[in-house]
Amino acid sequence: LAMAALDAGDNEAALLAYQRMAATGPRGKSLADSGVADVALFAGDAKQAETVLLASIEDDRSGDNERGIGVKTIALAETYLAEGRNAEALEALRGVSMDSLEDGLLVPGAIMFARLGDFDAAREIADRLGNQLRPQSRAYAKLIGGVIELEGERFVPAIDELKAALEF
Predict the structure, then answer these.
(1) Tell me: the pLDDT tens digits for 42-96?
(2) Residue 57: Cβ within 10 Å count
(3) CA of residue 35 relative to chain centroid, distance
(4) In Å, what is the CA distance from 63 to each residue of 55, 56, 66, 68?
(5) 64-77 pLDDT, tens per residue?
(6) Is 36 exposed, middle or buried (0-12, 13-18, 19+ CB in 10 A)?
(7) Rounded to an integer, what distance in angstroms lies between the CA atom of residue 11 and that of residue 115?
(8) Sign of the alpha-carbon torsion through 125, 130, 131, 133
(9) Which of 23, 52, 76, 139 has the fewest C-beta atoms lying within 10 Å of its C-beta?
(10) CB 105 within 8 A of CB 67
C-alpha cells in the first residue's frame, strides 16, 4: 500500500500505511522504519531519513535483528553518500558484520563499498559470493566485479563482468 501511495505521489498515505505496519509488532516496526526513511529520502529530507535510520538501528540492535541492522545501515550509508558524507558512509558500512548477511544484503553492501572507493571490501564480498555453489551467488559476484570496474572507469572489463553475470 505504501509503495502504491508513493507511486501515486501521496507521501502522507504512504506514511499512514507505514504507521499501521509499525503497530503490528517489532518486525513490522523495523520494516516500517525503513519505509519511513525511504519516504523522507524520496521527499529530499536526508536529515529526517538519517534520524529515523539511526533510531531504528538501535531498536534492531536491542532486538537482535541482524537483518534489520544490515538493511538500515546500508540505507544510512546511501543517505550519507547522497549528502557527500563519504567518510561517514564508509564508517557506517564497516560497522556491519558482512559475515552475518545473506546475499540479498551483501550485494548492495558491496556496491556501496565500490561506490565509496573501498574496492578491497567490495572484492572480498565478491570473492565470498563467487566461491559458492549457487549460480545466483556467482552471478552476484560478477555483478559486483562489474560495478568495481565501472567505478574504476575501466569500461571494457566492466562490460565483460556484467555480461558474464547474465550468463549464470
Answers:
(1) 899 999 999 999 999 999 999 999 999 999 999 999 999 999 999 999 999 999 8
(2) 23
(3) 13
(4) 13, 10, 9, 10
(5) 999 999 999 999 99
(6) buried
(7) 29
(8) positive
(9) 23
(10) yes
